[in-house]
Amino acid sequence: MTEAAPFLPPTTQEVVFLLLGAVAVGTALLVVTTRQLVHAALWLVVCFGALAGGYLVLTAEFVAWVQVLIYVGAIVVLMLFGIMLTRAPIGRSPDLDSGNRAVATVVALATAGILVTVVIDGFGTAYSPLKPGAGAAEQLGASVFSTWVLPFEALSVLLLAALIGAIVLSRTDIRGAPTRSRSPNGSVPGVASSPDRDTIGPSPRDSGQSTTTTPSIQGPEATKPTEGRPHNSSTDDDGGQ
Amino acid sequence: MHIVYPAIVSALLFSIGVYGVLARRNTILVLMSVELMLNAVNINLVAFDVWLGDRLHSGQVLTLFVIVIAAAEVGLGLAIVLALFRNRQTVDIDHLRTLAEPNDHAPVDGALTPARVGVGSSAGGTARAHSGQYGPTGGEKGAPPVETGRSGTDLDDRAGRGQGPADQTAAGTPRGEVAAAGTLKGEVAAAGPKGEVAAIGASEGEADDAPEGRQAKDAGPEPGKDASEGGTGRASGEGRPENTDRRGGTA
């Protein structure tokens, strides 16, 4: 917490950190502007890698390796799985940006301006010499398992809950109570039930079946479709085609 | 190490994440942007941990916790996205408007209407969701305000009960390719049993030569929720016109 170190001859650590930070910011910009979905995930790898390097420069070794293991190793791979499972177009896709790009740019620039101004104003002279080994696994492990042991255990329970939640959400053969409890308008059972079933309790067989049945149902009962329902079924059979 | 350097990098990363969350349309890209924001927070935590020389390493431990929570968040988020994709065959956030209140944004969008409809009619297929969504106000534009209010609620009611072919016309029109095949039928269906629909549609049609735009506005008085939900299916051009003329025929 020593103050008033000179800025202009930057130390080697600062130069390295600034270069890594430039790489991180540049690749983050590519992540949010690229037209190819898979490239966004790969640029995200570079960004996280540069950030891990930044953690290393800041003497947070353990955090750096955890960053590499979890972010680069797990999260980006999970994202790639998500991209593949949603059958995203490989290659250039023109509609990755929504219509409010201008508003988003303005908001992001305003956020950047405010944050950078405040940070420079508040911490412009803050300086701290870096001590190697301050964030090694030994210190961090002693801290986690002595002081922060209760949040650590709570976090493991949270991870377990998230794991179970992800399994329940992504399995198609689990029909919980919400499947039957949410039947919003059962006034027309023939029309309302089949899209409802494939909306909430999804299984591949069901959706395939409903795509074949609902258009034929839709014809004769055309005078009374409820408002959202026929479109659900029609979106389903769009995707099936 | 000057603390201001990591703080600035973190601020820039955070605003890039904000931009991504606001501007991206694919849900997975939005999740990536959220990850960028979380990483910005992590840099801040580590930098200030180093600055404060905390003996308990609160900052770095909290960074580890944030990383773990981010992993849980991505796992759950992707599970939700996959469930969404299974049910809707799309992960575009703009198309998921089921929870939107249809009557809320109708008057608000009225100001935007002429430009949007113009874009929709000229751009054809790209504006498939928007033309339906802004359709109601496009219809209201040509009519006096009192009349619009009345017919709007009237049609709302009718669409809520799900009768009347304006429903189906709106379902057919939001995409451009329908307009070529279904123009006549759509117009007939819209103009048939509903006097006010025909009137509004006609006044709109004179104002605009393009048949697609005209048909989109014929679909207009139908409340926008239906059409915009219908717009979630992107490749569904061929299913809708048959529905349209079948219903036009039955009515």
UniProtKB/TrEMBL annotation, chain A:
Q: State the taxonomy lineage.
A: Bacteria, Bacillati, Actinomycetota, Actinomycetes, Streptosporangiales
Which InterPro entries does the UniProt entry name for this protein?
NADH_UbQ/plastoQ_OxRdtase_su6, Nuo/plastoQ_OxRdtase_6_NuoJ
Residue ranges of the region described as Disordered: 176-241
Q: Which domain of life is it from?
A: Bacteria
What is this protein identified as? NADH-quinone oxidoreductase subunit J
- Which Pfam families would you find in this protein's record? Oxidored_q3
- What organism is recorded for this protein? Nonomuraea longicatena
As for family, the record states: Belongs to the complex I subunit 6 family.
Gene3D superfamilies, from UniProt?
NADH-ubiquinone/plastoquinone oxidoreductase chain 6, subunit NuoJ
Listed Polar residues bias regions = 206-217
Q: How does it sit in the membrane?
A: Multi-pass membrane protein
Q: What is its main location?
A: membrane
Q: Does the keyword Membrane apply?
A: yes
Where are the bilayer-spanning segments? Answer: 15-33, 40-58, 64-85, 106-128, 148-170
Give the reactions, separated by semicolons, that this protein catalyses.
a quinone + NADH + 5 H(+)(in) = a quinol + NAD(+) + 4 H(+)(out)
Reported EC number(s) for this entry are 7.1.1.-
The answer on whether this UniProt entry bears the keyword Transmembrane reads yes
TrEMBL record, chain B:
Q: Keywords in alphabetical order, please.
A: Cell membrane, Membrane, NAD, Quinone, Translocase, Transmembrane, Transmembrane helix, Transport
Compartments annotated for it: namely: Cell membrane; Membrane
Reactions performed catalytically: a quinone + NADH + 5 H(+)(in) = a quinol + NAD(+) + 4 H(+)(out)
Regarding the membrane, this protein is recorded as: Multi-pass membrane protein
Keyword Lipid metabolism in the entry? The reply is no
- The portions of this protein that span the membrane are 6-22, 29-52, 64-85
Q: Positions of the region Disordered?
A: 103-251
Question: Cross-referenced Pfam families, in alphabetical order?
Answer: Oxidored_q2
Determine the domain of life of the protein's source. Answer: Bacteria
Task: Tell me the protein family, please.
Answer: Belongs to the complex I subunit 4L family.
Assembly notes: NDH-1 is composed of 14 different subunits. Subunits NuoA, H, J, K, L, M, N constitute the membrane sector of the complex.
Protein role: NDH-1 shuttles electrons from NADH, via FMN and iron-sulfur (Fe-S) centers, to quinones in the respiratory chain. The immediate electron acceptor for the enzyme in this species is believed to be a menaquinone. Couples the redox reaction to proton translocation (for every two electrons transferred, four hydrogen ions are translocated across the cytoplasmic membrane), and thus conserves the redox energy in a proton gradient.
Protein name as it appears in the record: NADH-quinone oxidoreductase subunit K
Q: Which organism is it from?
A: Nonomuraea longicatena
